[in-house]
Amino acid sequence: MTTAGRDFALDRGGRISGTITDAVTAMPLEGTCVIIVQLVGSMTVGRGSDCVDATGIYEVGGLPSGTYVALALPPDASD
Fold this sequence. Notes:
mainly beta, 0% helix
């Protein structure tokens, strides 16, 4: 899309994705939530999260370059 008088571009950023499965049964762990945290010096910055569906797949996009950690919370973590 082009708009007269506007000249800029947006960086789409990177993404982290994967599949969460049970270590014993290899079945997807529906409802598990993944939090993506960027390591910036001695600080951490939350960059996004996604909860997996019946396929076990998660994806978080729009990430700037950097070093990341993915934290998985089991479906019953809020109980």
